[in-house]
Amino acid sequence: MTAATAFRFGGRLALDLTWTLRYRRVEPTELLERPGDLRRWIGVAVAPTRAPVDDDLLAAAIDLREAVYRAATATIDGDPVRRADRALINAWAERPGPHRRLDASGGAEVRLRTGDEIGSALAAVATDAIDLLATGRDRLRRCAGPDCALLFHDASRPGRRRWCSAERCGNRVNTMAYRRRHAPTTGPE
Ligand SMILES: [Zn+2]
Fold it and tell me: Helices 117-135 and 83-93: crossing angle, nearest 10°?
């Protein structure tokens, strides 16, 4: 894995999972290629785990991811969420999610469910998706960057955020606009 295709996180678990298929519009790039990739993503996004992940669990996580992506894009477009996607998200949300523990220094630590660590992480993803789709729907956005298909939740107070990340897509667009404005005129006379 190269730095260019490393995991990225925007702060909303359900949408972060959808970010593991990069460049959806131009050149879909799967970041969850192997079971170990899912374990690594969960380790950063939810809590560290050494639980086994097999191909079936990886496929199930990808199914959940795509259901969340379709549900979120439908919601942004004002369309109903497909029944099958709703059923899949609801089924994962029914499972026991992670829990929190107070640690010795007074901090809280997220722990995955013993015996179903990966499943509990996916339950957390599904629960966050439900929260986003039901109560965060007005702040769900599609990045305005050209070729960028990333979805994000606009938690800014004015609610006018346009980019998945200002550094990435915001800057790219500003640079392109700058170049257009200052391009030398080389066309035929
Ligand atoms: Zn973007």
Answer: 130
